[in-house]
Amino acid sequence: MSSDEALYDKVARKVLSETLRLKKGETLTIESWNNGLPFARRLVVEAKRMGAIPVVVFEDESAYVEGVKVTPKDVLGSMGKQEYGLLAGSDAYVFIPGPPIGAYSPRLSREEATDSTKYNRSWYEAAEKAKLRGARLPFGYVGKDYARLIGKRPEEVVRHQLRAALVDFASISASGRAVGQALQDGAQATLLTPGGRLEFTLKGDLEVEDGLVDEGDVAGGYNMTYVPPGYVSKQVDTASAKGAVALSPSVTRLGLLKDARLEFEGGRLVGWRSRGSPKLLAELVEAVQLEKRALSTVIVGLNPLMRYENGQDRMVSGGIGLGGFGFMGTVRRASLSVAGKALVEKGKLALSA
Q1: Is 161 found in the same domain as 176?
Q2: Shared domain check, 45 and 31
């Protein structure tokens, strides 16, 4: 057995036993694109070893791209009754996506990618109704174009993400709860970056991505989790942000944003500049209506095995993500305090379980 196969086996076993808590006699649906098939095979074997009943749904990358371009607009992105039936009959679900529907893909335009995935809301509603337990493995988004963007080989990024999936889920969950408890509605947050100080008020939904799907998650409609985990996401009062923040290199739908300084007033983005990617930054911001250029989300990374520039920067322990103004930006060595309590200090988690 190769080292990659051994890694696949470990992650497959962990996903099925810990994330999904798959039981003997239960049904498992595995949806995979071309690049995920080697891992999907190990999921099938592990599921059968557990006495579960797996089935694989295959999405061919080239056929998908060609199909998007020839499908009538009024049908594109629709779910068929056979897929609804498959969800209704599944106890657990593993989704390994493909590069064409990732954040950075030159094979489909933004409009084509958006139109072809219009089924997302219907899919989640059907999954919630079926009370299935699901896991999404984002290594599937990593193709040659994305890997080239961050200067790596696809298999290198995939291998890193799968190793990061072997993190202790219970520890991630405990850290997520500790951070989440500090992110209370109405609390004032301060984010310090080199040459920048940004203040905002927390308000809205809280999400903890810990790699586990338990009864509470299913009951609350949080049927799908990311593997590897983890992060805590909290909404922000969109009228509250004021000050400036310096972003670290961030992958966006248009490519790699090398750097940026964003300025906010009254919640709105009022100034932006970049030394290394001025044109890209301008295009990202100007694609969003003026009144919608607001900070709406803050993310705190939790995974100690995840490293930057491996496709999931938002999950790096101590990393900070900011979104809502047209793209998700990352800050690598920032300090975040909430209600006077330090959560992150210079890129290191200061508050944990």
Answers
A1: no
A2: yes
DSSP string, 254-301: TEEE--EEEEEETTEEEEEE-SS-HHHHHHHHHTS-GGG-B--EEEEE
CATH at 151 = 3.40.1830.10
Rounded Cα distance between 224 and 177, Å, is: 18
Residue type, 247: L
Cα–Cα separations (whole angstroms), residue 327 to 36, 119, 163, 212: 27, 22, 27, 27
Choose the final residue of a domain: 138, 166, 194: 166
Residues 343, 279, single domain; the answer is yes
Q: Which domain holds residue 202?
A: 170-349
**How many structural domains is the chain composed of?**
2
DSSP 75-139: TTTPPPHHHHHHHHT-SEEEEE--GGGSSS-TTS-HHHHHHHTTTHHHHHHHHHHHT-EEEE-GG
Dump pLDDT digits (tens) for 16-49: 999 999 999 999 999 999 999 999 999 999 999 9
Residue 140, sorted as left (phi over 0), alpha (psi -120 to 50) or beta, turns out to be: alpha
Q: Residue 1 has what pLDDT? A: 58
Confidence category of residue 344, pLDDT binned at 50, 70, 90: very high
